[in-house]
């Protein structure tokens, strides 16, 4: 027969379910608040960046429209003074305000009858500083009535400059 050693009795370890969960709700709520804050910060950041990208795109489009308008006004101006008194590679410039946007026009004489007209939209610092430049290659032709006419070169006469 096996005898058991008798010694002091070991206390039984029993914990109530309430003691095991003490502080669990506080930790769960804190984690939930941090996660909700991170999601809110991410949404605000994404919205801000999307707004900036959209406004920059609109500013670039408005600058392109202003340069195209300035080129059209310059080509359609009957009193346009081409820089004939200056030599080849001579440039004259003037400023136009098209629809509230400032555009600088540069007219450069390339040859006796060929001119390069560049419209440069001056960037507005209040609106993201978008800048666009368009160049147009034109020829000056003397009409029958003695006045000069400007004709754009037929093969892709304008290009965007960077």
How are the secondary structure elements laid out?
Blueprint: H1 17-20, H2 24-76, E1 91-98, E2 101-109, E3 114-121, E4 133-142, E5 148-152, E6 158-161
Antiparallel strand pairs: 1-2, 2-3, 3-4, 4-5, 4-6
Structure description:
The longest helix has 53 residues, at 24-76. This protein is 35% helix and 27% strand. The protein has one domain. The protein has helices at 17-20, 24-76, and strands spanning 91-98, 101-109, 114-121, 133-142, 148-152, 158-161. The N and C termini lie far apart (103 Å). The chain is an alpha+beta fold and 162 residues long. Strands 1, 2, 3, 4, 5 and 6 form a six-stranded antiparallel sheet that branches.
Q: How many separate structural domains?
A: 1
- Characterize the overall form: rod-shaped
Average predicted confidence as pLDDT: 80
Number of strands: 6
Output the radius of gyration: 38 Å
Main beta sheet: strand number and arrangement?
A: 6 strands, antiparallel
What portion of residues belong to β-strands?
25-35%
Which range best describes the helical content: under 10%, 10-25%, 25-40%, 40-55%, 55-70% or over 70%? 25-40%
Low-confidence stretches: none
End-to-end separation: 103 Å
Query: SSE order, as H and E?
Result: HHEEEEEE
| DSSP summary: helix tally | 2
**Which structural class do the helices and strands define?**
alpha+beta
